[in-house]
C-alpha cells in the first residue's frame, strides 16, 4: 500500500462503509453486490486479456464468449433479481455494452409486450434459447430523432398473405442497431405499413435476416457491421438494407394493431406503455451519469493523492497534486456532482416504480411530469458527466491519456448517452414544453402540483430588482436558502422563455417557427429547472442520513455543489436579483474554504463508491496507490512489445538509410540549396560553399566556413532557425543546412 | 453534388476564395499549398487503407512507411521552405503525429543547437541519414511539469572517461517520448549530472539504446512501447530504463556546459535560446487550435446543411438541421472562435518572428510578454477547441460517433495539446504571474508597454458600480466598445486576483502557499486577459480586410464571438459594472439576430478553410454533401465485414443454443422460480404452475394459466415488469417468466 494513500484513509472524518451502504440502498444490498462481484471476478470463464490490447474483432469475439457464458450461469445460479442481474452483467463486461444487449434488452421484451399469444408461442422460446437472436431495428441512416420520418416500408400482399419489406432509399437503410451487424438472425423492423393502398404509419415486423442454419444473410437482405466507432468496440452495430423481403402476415407484431388476411387494417387501442418504458430508460441514464462520474473521480482523486509534482514550499518535498487549489477546484465539484446525481438517480428510480404501479392500473396522471423530468435530467446529468470525465482525465496529466488509466474508455463508453435514447437538446426542449405549459397554467390561475408547483409562487418575488436597492435573498451558507435561489432562478428563466415565445408568436409564420426562435431560451430554462431539481434532491437526501459524520461530509459536498453552480451561473443569479455583487466575492472565498474542508475526506469519499480494482481497471485509480509499478507492468504486455524489433524497421528504415547514405555520398556534384528563410539571412554566403570531398565533409565545411566569416550573429541564428523550421514542420531541421536538388546521377564520389 | 449544399453555396454573400487567401496569407501561398497537396494526394506511394480499419501495429507500420517515403521525396523535390514542408507532411500523415516526429523535430535540432563542433561531426550526418534515429527523452513516469525533479542520473567516471546512466527508481523511468518505443536507436537523455561528488543539475546526453546493426536493445537498456493511448496510434511513445549504461564523455552535449576529462565541471553561459523555442512551440499550438476547430466546424456545418430532421412546419418537408436555432447556437460561436484563433495564431507567429530577430541580437526585452502571452493563449485556445470539437461531434447526432465522421480522430489527435508543451492550468498560472507582476509595476507608477498597458489605465473606471446608478459603458453593437469591456473585465479580474494574493500573504506560511491559495482567482484573471487579447486581435484583423463582402461577414463573426463571450461570462461583466441587467436581455436577442445573419454564409465560411476531402477524411464533411452513400461504402469495407459469418458464431453461439435447448427440454422436472418483483405481484399464483409436457408448453401454460385467473390486471403488468427487468439489467427479460434452478440432471423428456 502506498503510504500517501494510507495516510489519506487514516484522516477520514467518517466511515466510508456507512456511506457505501447508503449508496447501495442498505447494508444487505452492499453485501449481495459484493458477493456477486466476487462470483464473477473469481470465475475463470470470465478472465480475458486487457481489452486495450485486442483488435476490434478479438474484442467482439471475447464479448460474445463472455455473454454466452453469462447467460448459462445466470440461469444456472438462478440469479433473477433485476439489480442482481445488473451487478452480474456489469461485472462480466466491466460496464461495457455487449453484442447481445439488444437481444436481451429490446428484442425479448418487445416480443413479450407486443406479440399476440400465437406469436409468443411461435417466437418466444426459440428467442429465449438463442435459436432466434434478434435486435431492434428502428434508426435509419437518415432518421433518428424524428421516428415518424422513417422510410422503410412493409407493404401487404393479400395474394400471398405476406408483407414485402423494402428500404426504398439509401437514407432508409437501418443503421446503428446493436448486434445487427454479425450477431442477430432476426430483427424487429420498424416500418411504414401499407395495406389496401394506404399508409398506416409505423409498425413492428419480426424479420428473419440470416439463415438459422448457416447464419448467412437471406435473399434480399444486405446486412453488415457499420464500422469502427468512438468506443463500443465490442458491439456490432449494424446496417440492414431490405430488397423485397417477404415475411408472413403473422410476423407483424399484432397484440395491438392488426392486419387481417384480406388486408383490412385494425387500429390499436391507445398505448401509453411504451411511453413509460422510455421514461424508465432515461431515468436509468441519470444513474449511469453518476456511475461514470464517480468512477472518473475515483481514478483522478486517488491518483492526485499519490502523484507529487512541483514545489509548494522551496526546499520541501514535491507536494501531492491534490494539495493544489486548482486541482481541488477541478475535482471536488465533480465529486459533489457524482453524489448529487447518484441521489437523483435513486429518486428517479423510486419515483418511476411508485408511478408504474399507477400506470398498471391505467392511471397516468403523474407520468407527464416524470416524463418531462426524466428527459431534462437525462440531458442535464449526461452533459455534466460527459464534460466531467474529460476534466478528470486531463487532471491526471499525461498519464490520463494512456489507456491504462481507463479514463479514455470511460469517456467513449459514456459519451453516447448524450445522444441515444433522446438527443440531449431535444430532451431539454421536451422538458421546456412541459415547463411552458405549466407556466401558462399557473398564469391562468391553476394550482400546479409536483415539482413545478414553484411556478405558482408570487411572481413579484422573482421580478428583477436593482441589486443595490433590495435586501439580499440568499444566505450563502445555508443550503435551504440556496435551494430557494435555484428555484427563483428557474422560475425567472421559465418566465423569460415563455415571454419570449409569446413575443415570437406575434411575428412568426407558425407556432413551430416561434418555438424554434425561442429555443435557446427554452433550453436555458430547462437547464435551470433541472439544476434546481438536483440541488433540491441533494438537500432532501441529507435529511435521511442518520450518521452524523456522514451527514456532515455530505452537507459540505451539497453546499459545494450548490455554491459552485451559483458561481458558474452568476450572471443568472445577479440578473434575477437573487445575489448582490459583494456576495459573489464572498462565494468565491467560501468555495475555497469548502475545498479545504473536503480535502482530508477526498479519498475516503471516492473509496465509498466502492469500485473494485477489477471494475475500474485503472492503473492510476488503484486502491493501493501503487500506480507506477502497475503502469510499467501493463506497458510491458502491450502488443508492440511482443517482438523486440518491429518488422517496419527491416521493411522501411533500413532500406531508407542505405538509400540516403548513397545519395549523400554522390551529391557532391549537385548544387546546394537552402530554404529561403535561411538563405535570405545568409546573403548568398552559402553559394560560396561548394561541394567537398564527402557529404559529411560538405556539411561540416558549410558550418565551418560560416563560422569563419565575420558575421558571427548569423551563426547564432542557426539554432533559432532550426527550431522554427523543425517545429513548424515537425520535420528535418537539417534541410536548412544541406539540401541537394535535384539528384541527377548516382556515381561514386571522386577522391 | 447534393442539391442542399449547392444551394448553400449559391447563397453566399462573399467569395470564399478571397477569404481562403487571407487565411493562407496571400493568393500565392494558397496556390502553392494546393500544389503541394495535389503532389502528395496524387502520389501512389502515400496511398493507404483507411487507418480506422487497421490494428495499431499496422498503423505504426503504415506511418513508418510513409515517413520513409516522405523523407526521400522532400529531398528529391527540394522542398525546404518550412511552411511547404508543413503542408507536405500534414498531407502525408493527414495531420496525425508520426514515429519520426521526435527524430526530425527534436533530436536533430538538439544536436544542431547543443553540440560542440566535434559532436556535430560525429553525430549529425549519421542522424541526417537515419543511421542514427533519435528521440528526446525528458519526461519520466513520475515527472512531467517540474523538470528539475527528474531523477535519471549521469555520473561521471574519470577512470574510464565515461558517464554511467541510471534510472534509480521506478518513477525515474523515461516515459512518453515519441519514437522511443520501437523506432529509435539513440535518445538525448535528460539526466542529473554528477561529477566529483556533486550534482550539477540537468544536462543532455546522447545515449545509444539499440544496436545500430540488429536494432536490439543494448545491455542495461530496457526499452519498449508504453501501450495504447487515447489516439496517437501511429506513434510508439516509449519507456526507457537505464541500468548502469556507460557512454563516452563525448556524448554529453557540450556546446555550453562541459565536463573535462578529469571530471571538472564547466558552467554554461546563460542561455535564453531554449526559452525562445518554448515560446515558439506554444505559439504554434494556437494555430493548431484553429485548425482542429475549423476542421470540426467544416464537418458539422456541412453535415447540418444536408441532414434533415423533424418538423419545423407541419406538413412541410423536414428542415435542414442547420435551420434549428439551437444547432446554430452550438456551431456558429465555434466557427467564430475558429476564425478568431486563426488570426491570433497568425499574430503570434508574426510577433515571434519579429522578436526572434531581436533575440538573435541578444535583445530579450519583448520575450517575457510574448512568453506570458503564448502560455496563456496556448491554454485558452486549446481548452476552447478541445471542448468545441466535442460539441461539433455531438451536433452530428449518432453519426458523429462513427469513425467515418473523422470527429473522434480529430478529438483524440488534438486533446493532448491541453497537456503537452505545458499543462494548461500551469500555463494559465505562468501568465498570471506576469499579469500580477505587471499590475504591481503599474501600481508603483511604472508605465507598462505592450498588451498589458491597460493595467495603467485609471482604476476608477473599473470599480464596481451599482448597476442601476451609472451610465452604461458598453455599446453592444459596437465591436470597439466590446473590446473595451473585455479589457476592463480583465483589468478588474487581475486586480481582484492581485488583491486576494496580497491578502493571502498576510496569513500564509510562505509566498508559495499564498500563491496556491489564490490560484483559482489567478487562473480566472489569465483567462479574462486571454479572452481580451483574442477579441482585440480579431477586431484588429478586420481593419486589414479590403474586400467589403468578406469584411462584412467577418465583422458579423467577430461581433458574435464577442457577444457570445459576454453572455457566457455575464456574471463578470455585471460584477464589474460594465453591463446593466436590461442589456443582458438585449444581448440574448442580438445573438439570435447574428445567428440568423450568419446562417446563409455558414457553408461558404467553412468552405473558405479549404480542406480537401482527402484531408478531412470525413463522410459527413464531404464537399459534395453526399454523406449517406459514402458512409455506406465505408462501412462495407469495415474489417468485420470481410467475412459474412464471424467465427464467434460457430465458437460460442451455436454451442450455447444447443445447450440451452437441451436444458429447457429437461427442465420440466425442476422447480419454477420467478424474480422477487414478479412473484411478489403474483402472490403465489406461479406455484400452481407446475411442469408440463415440454418447456415451450410450460412457458405458454404459465402465461395461459395466469390469463385464466381473475387478476387480469396482473397480466397487464407483465410488460412493464419485463421492461423494468430487461432494461435495468439489459438482460433477459424472460427470466421473470421462466427460470429453472438449479439444474439437476440432463435426461430426455418423457412424452
TrEMBL record, chains A, B:
Highest taxon of the lineage: Eukaryota
Catalysed conversion reaction: (6Z,9Z,12Z,15Z,18Z,21Z)-tetracosahexaenoyl-CoA + O2 = (2E,6Z,9Z,12Z,15Z,18Z,21Z)-tetracosaheptaenoyl-CoA + H2O2; octadecanoyl-CoA + O2 = (2E)-octadecenoyl-CoA + H2O2; glutaryl-CoA + O2 = (2E)-glutaconyl-CoA + H2O2; (5Z,8Z,11Z,14Z,17Z)-eicosapentaenoyl-CoA + O2 = (2E,5Z,8Z,11Z,14Z,17Z)-eicosahexaenoyl-CoA + H2O2
Boundaries of every Acyl-coenzyme A oxidase N-terminal domain copy: 15-133
Acyl-CoA oxidase C-alpha1 domain: residues covered: 275-436
Keywords (A to Z) from UniProt: FAD, Fatty acid metabolism, Flavoprotein, Lipid metabolism, Oxidoreductase, Peroxisome, Phosphoprotein
UniProt domain Acyl-CoA oxidase C-terminal: residue ranges: 478-656
Pfam families: ACOX, ACOX_C_alpha1, Acyl-CoA_ox_N
InterPro entries: ACO, ACOX_C_alpha1, Acyl-CoA_ox_N, Acyl-CoA_Oxase/DH_mid-dom_sf, Acyl-CoA_oxidase, Acyl-CoA_oxidase_C, AcylCo_DH-like_C, AcylCoA_DH/ox_N_sf
Pathway: Lipid metabolism; peroxisomal fatty acid beta-oxidation
CDD domains (UniProt xref): AXO
Intracellular or extracellular location(s): Peroxisome
Coiled-coil regions, chain positions: none
Cofactor: FAD
Entry's family note: Belongs to the acyl-CoA oxidase family.
Classification via PANTHER family: ELECTRON TRANSPORT OXIDOREDUCTASE, PEROXISOMAL ACYL-COENZYME A OXIDASE 1
Listed name of the protein: Acyl-coenzyme A oxidase
Amino acid at each position: 500500500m502506498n503510504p500517501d494513500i494510507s495516510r489519506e484513509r487514516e484522516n477520514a472524518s467518517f466511515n466510508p462503509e456507512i456511506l457505501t451502504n447508503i449508496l447501495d440502498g442498505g447494508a444487505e444490498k452492499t453485501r449481495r453486490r459484493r458477493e456477486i462481484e466476487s462470483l464473477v471476478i473469481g470465475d475463470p470463464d470470465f478472465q480475458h486479456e486487457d481489452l486495450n490490447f485486442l483488435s476490434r474483432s478479438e474484442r467482439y469475439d471475447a464479448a460474445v464468449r463472455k455473454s454466452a457464458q453469462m447467460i448459462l450461469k445466470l440461469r444456472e445460479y438462478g440469479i433473477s433479481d433485476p439489480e442482481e442481474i445488473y451487478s452480474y452483467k456489469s461485472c462480466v463486461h466491466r460496464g461495457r455494452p455487449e453484442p447481445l444487449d439488444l437481444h436481451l434488452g429490446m428484442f425479448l421484451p418487445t416480443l413479450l409486450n407486443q406479440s399476440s399469444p400465437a406469436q409468443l408461442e411461435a417466437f418466444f422460446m426459440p428467442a429465449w434459447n438463442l435459436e432466434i437472436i434478434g435486435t431492434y431495428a428502428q434508426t435509419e441512416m437518415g432518421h433518428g430523432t424524428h421516428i415518424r420520418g422513417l422510410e422503410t416500408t412493409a407493404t401487404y400482399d393479400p395474394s400471398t398473405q405476406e408483407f414485402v419489406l423494402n428500404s426504398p432509399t439509401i437514407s432508409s437503410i437501418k443503421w446503428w442497431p446493436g448486434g445487427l451487424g454479425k450477431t442477430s438472425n432476426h430483427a424487429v423492423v420498424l416500418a411504414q405499413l401499407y395495406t389496401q393502398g394506404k399508409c398506416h404509419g409505423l409498425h413492428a415486423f419480426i424479420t428473419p435476416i440470416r439463415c438459422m442454419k448457416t447464419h448467412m444473410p437471406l435473399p434480399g437482405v444486405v446486412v453488415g457491421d457499420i464500422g469502427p466507432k468512438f468506443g463500443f468496440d465490442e458491439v456490432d452495430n449494424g446496417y440492414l438494407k431490405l430488397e423485397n423481403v417477404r415475411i408472413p402476415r403473422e410476423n407483424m407484431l399484432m397484440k395491438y394493431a392488426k392486419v387481417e388476411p384480406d388486408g383490412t387494417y385494425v387500429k390499436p387501442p391507445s398505448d401509453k406503455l411504451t411511453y413509460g418504458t422510455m421514461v424508465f430508460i432515461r431515468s436509468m441514464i441519470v444513474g449511469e451519469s453518476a456511475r461514470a462520474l464517480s468512477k472518473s473521480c475515483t481514478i483522478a482523486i486517488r491518483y492526485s493523492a499519490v502523484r507529487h509534482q512541483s514545489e509548494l514550499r522551496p526546499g520541501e518535498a514535491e507536494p501531492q497534486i491534490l494539495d493544489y487549489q486548482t486541482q481541488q477546484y477541478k475535482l471536488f465539484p465533480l465529486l459533489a456532482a457524482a453524489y448529487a446525481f447518484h441521489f437523483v438517480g435513486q429518486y428517479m428510480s423510486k419515483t418511476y416504480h411508485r408511478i408504474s404501479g399507477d400506470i398498471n392500473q391505467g392511471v397516468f396522471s403523474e407520468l407527464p411530469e416524470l416524463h418531462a423530468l426524466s428527459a431534462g435530467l437525462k440531458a442535464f446529468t449526461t452533459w455534466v458527466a460527459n464534460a466531467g470525465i474529460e476534466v478528470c482525465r486531463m487532471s491526471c496529466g499525461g498519464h490520463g491519456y494512456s489507456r491504462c488509466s481507463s479514463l479514455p474508455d470511460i469517456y467513449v463508453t459514456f459519451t453516447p448517452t448524450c445522444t441515444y435514447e433522446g438527443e440531449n437538446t431535444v430532451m431539454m426542449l421536451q422538458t421546456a414544453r412541459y415547463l411552458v405549459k405549466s407556466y401558462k397554467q399557473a398564469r391562468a390561475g391553476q394550482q400546479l402540483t409536483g415539482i413545478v408547483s414553484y411556478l405558482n409562487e408570487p411572481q413579484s418575488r422573482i421580478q428583477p430588482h436593482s441589486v443595490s436597492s433590495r435586501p439580499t435573498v440568499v444566505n450563502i451558507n445555508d443550503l435551504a436558502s440556496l435551494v430557494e435561489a435555484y428555484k427563483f432562478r428557474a422560475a425567472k428563466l421559465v418566465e423569460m422563455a415563455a415571454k419570449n415565445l409569446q413575443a415570437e408568436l406575434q411575428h412568426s409564420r407558425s407556432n413551430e417557427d416561434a418555438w424554434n426562435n425561442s429555443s435557446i431560451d427554452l433550453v436555458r430554462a430547462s437547464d435551470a429547472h433541472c439544476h434546481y431539481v438536483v440541488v433540491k434532491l441533494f438537500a432532501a437526501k441529507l435529511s435521511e442520513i442518520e450518521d452524523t459524520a456522514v451527514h456532515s461530509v455530505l452537507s459540505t459536498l451539497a453546499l459545494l455543489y450548490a455554491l459552485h453552480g451559483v458561481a458558474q451561473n452568476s450572471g443568472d443569479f445577479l440578473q434575477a436579483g437573487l445575489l448582490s455583487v459583494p456576495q459573489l466575492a464572498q462565494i468565491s472565498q467560501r468555495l475555497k474554504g469548502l475545498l479545504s474542508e473536503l480535502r482530508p475526506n477526498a479519498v475516503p469519499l471516492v473509496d465509498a463508491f466502492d469500485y473494485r480494482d477489477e471494475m475500474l481497471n485503472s492503473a492510476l485509480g488503484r486502491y493501493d496507490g501503487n500506480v507506477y509499478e502497475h503502469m510499467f507492468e501493463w506497458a510491458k504486455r502491450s502488443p508492440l512489445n511482443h517482438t523486440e524489433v518491429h518488422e517496419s524497421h527491416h521493411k522501411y528504415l533500413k532500406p531508407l538509410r542505405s538509400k540516403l547514405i548513397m545519395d549523400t555520398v554522390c551529391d557532391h556534384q549537385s548544387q546546394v540549396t537552402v530554404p529561403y528563410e535561411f538563405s535570405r539571412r545568409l546573403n548568398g554566403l552559402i553559394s560560396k560553399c561548394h561541394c567537398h570531398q564527402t557529404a559529411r565533409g560538405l556539411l561540416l565545411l558549410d558550418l565551418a566556413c560560416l563560422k569563419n566569416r565575420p558575421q558571427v550573429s548569423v551563426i547564432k541564428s542557426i539554432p533559432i532557425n532550426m527550431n522554427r523550421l523543425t517545429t513548424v514542420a515537425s520535420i528535418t531541421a537539417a534541410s536548412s543546412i544541406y539540401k541537394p536538388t535535384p539528384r541527377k546521377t548516382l556515381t561514386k564520389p571522386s577522391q
